[in-house]
């Protein structure tokens, strides 16, 4: 059996991280597993046992997901989009998957609707069409206009066999963020959260009892990184701080290192073993994206979430408000960000382990494989 997962991350790397974890779970279950990524390469993420195929990458201009930039910084033109469509549909023809999964679309990525619809049309036209599913996280950006809702429902009816919702409805049901119509509700399959296997955080002492900060790249992360570095420099807490900055932010790394002495602050490029560091940390500071939140809850790390709220983004603040009801979790709004307030928020969670999620709720990748396998078996009967 073969699965193909199509994903384009435009701002952070969360969508790609989740798609890779899902693909690796299929591969470990004996499937041939392929991920087709249309966002910028993310060297800190690895495909595991799956195969990663890279399209000519696109990225958004901040939270403006309608204006997409190519790898050389140009605004993508019709020729760029046509080349991506050609490569994407070419991979479908070459790989001939039994199951096709689109990450986020049709609930989002409307700027890329042309290439997704070309992919779906070709899949439907195959002599033996693949099972087609959408893959979505726990919280979605709600439709900005009523017609967006009906447009999404129409695409689901035309192209899809189901929707994999990577959440536990007892923790965060999809209707908390998206107005579900009856036909949509009938298509949902809750999988639990898609989280990588827990790292062995016991071995090694690197990072032990530090405050670990991750915050994304560019303007999305700089304010939080700078506040953390200034908090370290002021010695407001007795802990050493470690900031993991995206590797393409070299100027930011040099700037942050100058804000505090080395014995109080370590600033380095984001590492592939950062989850092991997280497991040994005294506390975590970060945004509240899907993967960041799951890492903290899976490992029980005391955490301060400072959700990204740029543009019309509501995903992270919605998730942070829900999770801040749990012990060991604090919410600090970006508008309130300062070294003193960050130190105060950390003081409320240090020494208070975050309430871990039930392990069954973190088995979303394996459960997704079970659901897809059962759907294919049912189709064949």
Order of helices and strands: EHEEEEHEHEHEHEEHEHEHEHEHEHH
Global outline: globular
Secondary structure tally, helices = 12
Number of strands: 15
Q: Give the mean pLDDT.
A: 93
Radius of gyration: 21 Å
* Helix vs. strand class: alpha/beta
Portion in beta strands: 15-25%
Strand order of the largest sheet: 3-2-1-6-7-8-9
How many angstroms does the end-to-end distance come to? 16 Å
What is the topological layout?
Layout: E1 2-7, H1 14-28, E2 32-37, E3 51-54, E4 59-61, E5 64-69, H2 78-95, E6 99-103, H3 113-125, E7 131-136, H4 146-159, E8 162-165, H5 182-187, E9 188-190, E10 211-214, H6 219-234, E11 241-245, H7 250-257, E12 265-269, H8 274-280, E13 283-286, H9 290-299, E14 303-305, H10 315-323, E15 329-331, H11 339-349, H12 364-380
Parallel strand pairs: 1-2, 1-6, 2-3, 6-7, 7-8, 8-9, 10-11, 10-13, 11-12, 13-14, 14-15
Antiparallel strand pairs: 4-5
Helix pairs in contact: 1-12, 2-3, 6-11
